[in-house]
Design goal:
Radius of gyration: 17 Å
Strand content: under 5%
Strand order of the largest sheet: 1-2
Structural class: mainly alpha
Largest sheet: 2 strands, antiparallel
């Protein structure tokens, strides 16, 4: 059986690049110069819904640290900023409940972010 760590999917932060809404020439140039479609930042209008999911993940945890994290989540201006709060969400849920519960909650949050397969063990770094 394969090593469990080799079966993991890497969750990546969303790109800071947004596809332009301008004329066809701007969109063509963006398309030609963009590294890959999955690296284009998701639409900003998704932010409020994703933010609410992050806040709901912490809804049953009452602590000063949880309140501070809720404030950081509320003040996040991009999905990339929310992506960086996942480790703190995991830690607080793990302490309040269990590691299994923390992993389950973070897995639900991860669906909002791009993923990629892990590197092959045979490929050079």
């Amino acid at each position: 059986m394969a090593d469990p760590s080799s079966l993991r999917v890497e969750v990546c932060p969303p790109s800071l690049r947004y596809a332009p809404e301008g004329n066809a020439w701007q969109r063509l140039m963006f398309w030609l110069l963009a590294p890959a479609p999955h690296e284009v930042a998701p639409p900003i209008n998704r932010l409020p819904g994703v933010r609410m999911e992050f806040l709901a993940t912490l809804s049953d945890i009452d602590s000063v640290e949880a309140d501070e994290l809720r404030r950081r989540i509320h003040d996040a201006r991009s999905l990339r900023e929310l992506w960086h709060t996942r480790a703190d969400v995991y830690r607080l849920v793990g302490v309040a409940h269990s590691q299994f519960e923390a992993q389950a909650r973070v897995d639900l949050l991860n669906r909002h972010f791009p993923t990629r397969a892990p590197r092959s063990q045979f490929a050079p770094l």
